[in-house]
Each structure stands twice: as structure tokens, then as C-alpha cells.
Amino acid sequence: MILKCIRTVAMAALAMVSINVSGQDLLARQAPIDRKLKAVDSLALIRQIKAEQAVYPAYSLYPNWNNDRVHAYGGNVQVPDSFRIDLTGFCMPTTHTKITSKCGPRWRRMHNGLDIKVYIGDTIRAAFDGRVRMVKYERRGYGKYVVIRHDNGLETIYGHLSKQIVAEDEYVKAGDPIGLGGNTGRSTGSHLHFETRFLGEVINPEFMFDFPNQDIVSDSYLFVRGANRYAYQRTRALAAVKSGKSGAAEAEKSAIRYHKIRKGDTLGRISRLYHVSIDRLCQINGIKRTTTLRIGQVLRCS
Questions:
Q1: What's the pLDDT tens digit per position in 239-266?
Q2: What's the rounded Cα separation, in Å, for the pair 164 and 180?
Q3: Is-same-fold flag (74-225; 257-302)?
Q4: What global pTM score does this model have?
């Protein structure tokens, strides 16, 4: 009887061990399958993200896709404190280099872009890859214009065209023709009105595009919320300097300044050059003391 009980206990223990071993084997065999499934899920997610990016560029930044109004966001969008905009893969919108009106106050109102001299019929091209958000006509403003939202988060506006040659929701590549130069809308001569905006915030195109040299200023632009008032402050300060008004030095001093990194530049050198602490430089540019400075990078210095 005792032997029979011992035999029963031994068989039960052996069965438990077998089950445990079998379970471990099953889990071991299942692990590669789980990894493959996760890999498949990741690839599917990446494909989905790319598909959504193609349909609505910068979809993770913008709250909507609106074909009715240029400035469609207002208080409905959350603007980040800083955001680095990739400028590689660009194309200059026109081969003309003469700027006839800068970004800033003009005729008692804000001029939110650059006016570049072009002639009626000149080809105007998309600055970056993106999707056409608007193709409209505004008699007392932009005239015939095109708005493109780009993969890098920017929106560009091309105004006073004589003809638009793209359609709303059409995807375009950098350099694709989108319209012809003209003199439509509120315009006193043929030119291209070119605006760059991020989540509705105006950015002076000269911070990114060097029209005289037909190039970009650097490979990327660090958008800092509130810093783009520079377009107004700087213009006002320079006007005061040119006119010799009292307080011009103070106005110039209060204007936001930028520095393009050159070979040999360090945060310490830039700090001494612009009389600003290294900690302040890091704070307003969203960088650290240990950040590697790249040649061509643009830093805000005040």
C-alpha cells in the first residue's frame, strides 16, 4: 500500500515536471513568433504613418485641413515653445533675386512676407515637398494665390499669380511648377508675394531663404515661439537708425539678433560677441552647453 502511494506521488510529480517543461518549450517557441508579430505591427504602423503623412503633411502638428481660409488656426492650435524645421530638399520659388519689399511694417500695416520681383508668366515653384491646401483668388489681397503645407511643418503662400497650375489637395514635390508670376489682387506691379508660416505664426522668409545667393541660410531653422516678432522689431530699429531719431541705439539694442555658426565658433565666443550669457543662449535656442554646434546653424542671440 505504501509502495503504491509512493508510485502515485512520483507519477504525479513527473507529470507536473513534464507539463512545466512543455509550457516552457511552448513559450520558447512562441517568443520568436511574438517578435515577428511585433515587427509586422511596427512595419504596418510605419506604413500607416507614411500614408497619413502623404495625405496630410505635418498631420501631427496641425489641428485640421482647411481649404477655406489661409489663416485657419487662431487659438485652436497649440504652438510648441520650439521646433526645428528641416530646410534640406528645398527649391527656390523663383530664380529672381531682387527683393522689392521686406517682411515687417509697411504703410501702417504688417507685411507678412517678402515681395520678389518677377515678371508676368515667370514660373513659380514649390519650395518643399507638400500638399496644396488652397488655390483661391482674393481681389483685395493675395490675388490669385496658392498655399502649400509641407512635410517639414511649414506652410508657404505664393501670391499675386497670373495663373495657378495646381489643384487643391494635389501633392507636389520641391521644384514642381505651381503657378505663373503676375500682378493680381492688391498689387502695384508684377511680383511674387512669398510667405512662410508655422502653425499660422509668421516667420520672415529671409531667416531661411537667401534669395540673392539662391540658397537656404542653413540646413534647419529653429522656430522659437514669440521670436518672430523680430521681423517687426528689427525693421523698426533700422528705420530709426537711418532716420537718426533719438533712442535709435536703444531700439537697435532691443531687436532680436541671430548668429550663423562659422568654423571655430563656440558658445563662449558667441556669448562674448553678443554680450549674452551661455545659459541664456541655451535657453532661448533649446540647446545644452554640451550641444555640438554645426556650421551653418543659426542661433538666436537676444
A1: 443 444 444 344 444 446 778 788 888 8
A2: 7
A3: no
A4: 0.64
Does domain 257-302 fall into CATH 3.40.50.300?
A: no
Alpha carbon distance 25, 54 (integer Å): 44
Mapped onto helix, strand or coil, the DSSP state of residue 282 is helix
pLDDT confidence of residue 237: 41
Axis crossing angle, helix 267-274 with helix 278-285, rounded to the nearest 10: 100
Asked whether 277 and 271 are in contact (CB, 8 A), the reply is yes
Q: Residue 242's pLDDT is what?
A: 42
Which three three-digit cell numbers place residue 208? 531661411
C-alpha cell at position 237: 530699429
Domain 74-225 bears CATH identifier 2.40.40.20 = no
Q: What's the one-letter identity of residue 176?
A: D
Biggest CA–CA distance in the chain, Å, is 117
pLDDT at 88: 92
Q: Which of 213, 194, 215, 214 has its CA nearest to residue 205? A: 194
Asked whether residue 272 carries a pLDDT value surpassing 60, the answer given is: yes
Contacting residues for 257 by C-beta, under 8 A, at least 6 apart: 274, 300, 301, 302
Q: Where are the domains of the chain?
A: 74-225, 257-302
Question: Could you give the CA distance from residue 182 to residue 187 in angstroms, rounded to a whole number?
Answer: 9
Q: Which among 147, 129, 126 has a CA at the least distance from the CA of 54?
A: 129
